[in-house]
Amino acid sequence: MKARTRYAPSPTGPQHIGGLRTALYSWLLARQTGGQFLLRLEDTDRERYDAESERSIKNSLRWLGLDWDEGPEVGGPHAPYTQSERLPIYQEAAERLIAQGNAYRCYCTKQRLDEMRAAQQAAKLPTGYDRKCRNLTAEERAANEAAGLPSVVRFAMPADGSVTFTDAIRGDITFENGLLDDFVILKSDGYPTYQLAAPLDDVLMEITHIIRGEEWISSATKNILLTRALGHEPPIYAHLPLILGPDKKKLSKRNGDAAVKDYQDAGYLPEVLLNFIALLGWSEGTDQELYTREELISKFSLENVTNHPAVFDVVKLDWMNGLAIRAMSLSELAKRCVPYLQAAGLIPDPVPAEMLAYIESVIALEQERLHKLADAPEMTAFFFKHDLEWDDKALKKVQADGAKEILSAAADALEATADWSFESVESAVRGLIETRGVKPGEVIHPVRAAVTGRTVGPGLFETIHVLGKAETIRRLRNAS
């Protein structure tokens, strides 16, 4: 079966990890079956709609390579794919449901609804609409309309019976109809609620599988009854488990649920984040943890999605990111570090062609220690800054007794090298150590501090070799 799936976010905030997992699983199922993946923007909450959030959602999907076959900016046979542009479709459906007796207009004011709920709570009864307007006579409805009273449209839930559906992850789930009240499907401003717009769009857009979080399980009965009232059979539902933080509490910004762009800005590789998120609830039943995009597509299935919470472990994410960085070709890694170096003001934009080789040489020294791309500027800044900044420990090294004499001698020794190979650099410094009859650290430590402004970093001889003869000697002379 070729799956038609959709990711239907509400652009009311930045893209987060939970939503991204929904998008990824939907995309993987579509790609694995040779189907289509749709993007639909559910922007009917106009009070909370945020244009920047819409851009964030699209950019996050693009960054991760989750391309959509139909949707905004792509088009398709079911356009428009933005719900605020589909209002006549929802309004017509609401009127059809009213005509069929599956829905009705409710004229209750907010004050009456608040008083009703307060009374229910005081009596320790379940809260819900009391169906006052469901029982209005035709004359009462006509009078309300003639008076111009504002109204919403509510779905008329069956008073008894139940709905059973088979969740692709959780198996059979049954809900008693009588436990649900008559929910609003069309607001007084003409905008639909999720409970009308989402299921209606799903059938009109021919969606076969709806993948969403487990918090939507309680909505399934409403969605199924409304879909059937409109003359359609509902798609297959798959409700994903919760994502918990390492503390086994619901994922929050404090324990990992940052915006996807925060992970991008921090320098996580998109292919690693995609791999990591795929494992938050899915496993093919082996010990494999590192997957290529192609492997995820070929091996993914809803049958292997668990029904228990997944744990977001940022330590594991860091480990995976570090592995991928170390496995990457030097030219590719340098290319990916460039935007972060530019953002830190260390290199120009665009990068001069003659500077690329130098950048690669610098990144090569830190590839083994680099865990996130955003760490590159801090780790390599001294290679690019003309005016060196010494940290406190390095400053003590260059100001120690005898340090200036050693630095001056080191500058003389390096200036006398015939070439600037790694071997020549090492030979010059070790020759100085031998000539002075001192321990290696008495030369290496102040020299490192003078040329890098730090007391730790990549190998000293490699650093000096990459830094270049003129710059190395200039820094030694300035510190001596």
| Shape verdict | elongated
Q: Measure the end-to-end span.
A: 74 Å
**How would a crystallographer describe the biggest sheet?**
3 strands, antiparallel
Kindly report the spatial arrangement of strands forming the biggest sheet.
Answer: 3-4-7
SS class? mainly alpha
Uncertain spans: none
Q: What is the averaged pLDDT score?
A: 95
The overall strand count is 11
Radius of gyration: 32 Å
> Number of helix segments?
20
Helix content: 40-55%
Content of β-strand = 5-15%
Q: Strands, helices and their partners?
A:
Layout: E1 4-7, H1 17-33, E2 36-39, H2 51-63, H3 87-100, E3 103-106, H4 110-122, H5 138-146, E4 152-155, E5 162-167, E6 171-176, E7 184-186, H6 194-204, E8 209-213, H7 220-229, E9 236-240, E10 243-244, H8 260-266, H9 270-278, H10 293-299, E11 310-311, H11 314-327, H12 330-343, H13 356-366, H14 376-384, H15 392-399, H16 403-415, H17 422-436, H18 440-452, H19 460-467, H20 469-479
Parallel strand pairs: 1-2, 8-9, 10-11
Antiparallel strand pairs: 3-4, 4-7, 5-6
Helix pairs in contact: 1-10, 6-7, 12-13, 13-19, 15-18, 16-17, 16-18, 16-20, 17-18, 17-19
Task: Write a structural description.
It is a single chain. The chain has 480 residues and is mainly alpha-helical. Helix content is 47%, strand content 9%. It contains 20 helices and eleven strands. It has helices at residues 17-33, 51-63, 87-100, 110-122, 138-146, 194-204, 220-229, 260-266, 270-278, 293-299, 314-327, 330-343, 356-366, 376-384, 392-399, 403-415, 422-436, 440-452, 460-467, 469-479, and strands at 4-7, 36-39, 103-106, 152-155, 162-167, 171-176, 184-186, 209-213, 236-240, 243-244, 310-311. The protein has a three-stranded antiparallel beta sheet with strand order 3-4-7. The protein has a two-stranded parallel sheet with strand order 1-2. Strand 8, helix 7 (220-229) and strand 9 (236-240) form a beta-alpha-beta unit. Helix 1 (17-33) crosses helix 10 (293-299), helix 13 (356-366) packs antiparallel against helix 19 and helix 16 (403-415) crosses helix 17. The radius of gyration is 32 Å and the shape is elongated. The model has no long low-confidence stretch (mean pLDDT 95).
